[in-house]
Amino acid sequence: MANRRTSILHAFLLCLLVTALTWPLFILVASTLGHVNGEAWLLDAWALDPQHQVKAYFLNGWIKSLPVAAALGVVALIDYQLLSRYRVTWIIAGILLPTAGAGIAFAFYGEPMNALPALALTGLALAIVYRLFDSIARWFRWV
Amino acid sequence: MHCQITSRGYVLLASLLTAALPIQADEAILIGGGHDVHSTKMQNELSVRWIQNVINNQEIPSNIWFTDGTEAGADVHYLATDEEAKHELMPLARVFGNATIDRHRYRENEFDSVYGSTRLNDLAPALTTKFETTTDQPVLFIFSGLGSPTANRPAGVSMKLWDNTALSTTQLNTLLGERTSPFRFVMNQCYSGGFHSLAFKNPDEGLELASGPRCGFTAQSAWQKPESCHEGLGTDDNEDYNSSFFAALSGFERNGEMVDSDPDTDANGVTSLREAHFFTLTRTGSVDLPRSTSEHYLNNWQPWYLRWLPPGPTLPNNEYAKLFRDVSVKLGIELDSSVGQILRGQLRTLQNSQKEATTKQLTAIEQLQNTRTILQDSTLSHWPALKGPYSGAFIAMASKGQLGDVAAFLGSHELYEKMLAQQKLVDSLASEIKALEHQVAQRQKLFYLRRLAVLKEQLKLHGSAREQADYLSLVTCEETPLHGID
Predict the structure, then answer these.
(1) Considering the entire predicted model, what is its pTM?
(2) By three-state DSSP, how is residue B97 classified?
(3) Residue A90 — pLDDT band, cuts 50, 70, 90?
(4) CB neighbours (10 Å) of residue A138?
(5) How remote is the C-alpha of B204 from its chain's centroid?
(6) Which residues from B are below 8 Å from A when comparing CB atoms?
(7) So what's the ipTM on this one?
(8) What's the burial of B137, exposed, middle or buried (CB within 10 Å: 0-12/13-18/19+)?
(9) C-alpha gyration radius of chain A
């Protein structure tokens, strides 16, 4: 009973973690990619616009992206249920997140190839977070 | 299918509506000058007078509101030439006063007919009357002066008016009321970008357009100071936004020379306001980052899921991409796949040089101040009355003609030449910083143009039918020539 409750809590926390971190990680990945090719909007906005406006854009994005982020949280949960709990499939656990990122690019963007790198890499970053969280949970024998 | 029909329907409706409107400016309102004589440069007066000539040549009736109007008393200042500035008490002015202010001269404005003062109490009722009498005519509103910023809302920016009064975007919006005939504006003051909010039903929020066509062109965003806020009183200075803008419309610079490129990019024989704006964007000599209302719309429209994405490897094919290429070529920047990195690298180097020059300038100012303090102390030990200018002792000393002795003492002091050299260094560092600022601004402008090119494409791909129609109506409003095409 206690194990079941711990498992549910673990799954809930995993879902929450992925939901909460989707937007910040997307900004981090997109800005890093932009920085590499010299064209991050953030760099110019930080220099030319007041910081409160940039922060407002960030917070607005965080709120507006919550449904998408929650969906990714559910994807992480499904991934966990399907792959993470078995020794053989554990190696590829998390793969559904970059796949979902790529899927979002193709489903919602007019020019998917422009959005694909940032979204797929955001999925990858989320997968790393998810694996890290899972490893910590296993290390402490929570699950 | 239904969605497609609605989308096309909106665009068609917007095109028909805007095409049906009279497009030329039937009335021009010119407002110029600062909030007091010290902030009103002769250059500003020259610019307003020249703009009036351009407008009059197009046979458009215009009214000018400038500083204190026709009231007696100096309302404009200018810098005396080196020859005019020479006087025997110059060393005294340089050590105890301010070398720049020492060169200031004051006079009345030289307009033949000024409608009135820009004092808010005079201007606001006059504008209300003007807007009421022109309800069915297009109006072109030109402001050439100074502006004040806002803490957190673009619609809070103001035009600074005479006697330290101000007219904010919100106030001007109220004066315009429910006006449905076209209202266009050109503004070069600091933070002028906040006035693009006039185009929207709620200036503070949302993208729903106001009932009548409203669009404009400003020298900067709501947050950045433009070139016109910087010092500079030369009569041949054509780099402020309004001067470039009207140079494009008239075909001639303010100094009488022909413009160096043809602003009429679609070669229909008439330069539209939008083409004049593009002409100023390709100019490379100022720190302005000009913007139009349609560009402001694109920036504000961009949804959260597109804003942070890095742009794709290739630029879409539109007018902003062309402007980007034109400015890049002018600046000698190679257009290859790594242009973004090259620009970012140049920007970083220039900003570092700017920081270094600023640090050097601060050190030089400190050294100059130290030398001045030594010279002041040394002089005060001989003539203590100098400590209190306008005091009885000072006036007695001045009436005996001793100020000339003080100036002679300072002029022959061993540190005086050193102080002059230090002043020269401070001035040259200021010029260096300004030149670097210009170069930084050009790189920022290139990034801005690239961003606009991408934004326009994004609106095409992701904007709703309503949003695309609104954007199109703003562009149509901007594509008006100063005078109608027959």
Answers:
(1) 0.89
(2) coil
(3) confident
(4) 13
(5) 22
(6) 152, 221, 223-224, 289, 304-305, 307-313, 338-345, 444, 447-448, 450-451, 457-458, 461-462
(7) 0.91
(8) middle
(9) 17
